[in-house]
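Curious: explain these tokens?
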Amino acid sequence: LDALWKIAVSRATLSAFERAYPLAFAEALEKNLTLLGGGVAARRMLAAEQVLTSQGVAVVLGVTGHYLGRLVVDFAPETAEALAAAALKRPPAGEDEVHQVAMEFVNLVGGHAVSRLNRADKSWGLRVALPGLFFGANFEMASPNLPNTWYGFASGLGEIRLGLGFRLKEE
């Protein structure tokens, strides 16, 4: 009976989490873009695929806790530069500064979303890991063990893609 109860509670919690996390991350991205003056004109679901070709700058942020997941924010280099200029309130000093600002931006987005989700259900115990940065031309982002759902955001700073993928932590 205990085993059946754990399975039932786990499925109910998973269902609640699956409904909550896409909106939490999307709204956190939109809120942070709005704070920078970029605003969001439109949000759309792009695909539920494992592979997507990057626009040139991708920041990956791991999420741990009861659910394991990944947040990927993908920018064109021009969008990352516009984001950095808006955050710094001056032109960025170079590509390194653009990348540092992009990573900090994604860290803020992830932190805000994780805080919102943890307020909804403390048992999820979510935490963000350090962000990783990938940049270059024509590289693909793949996640064979963690399917991603991709969203596109048209903002005043340029097109931004958000990739989300989570799974229940195996005990």
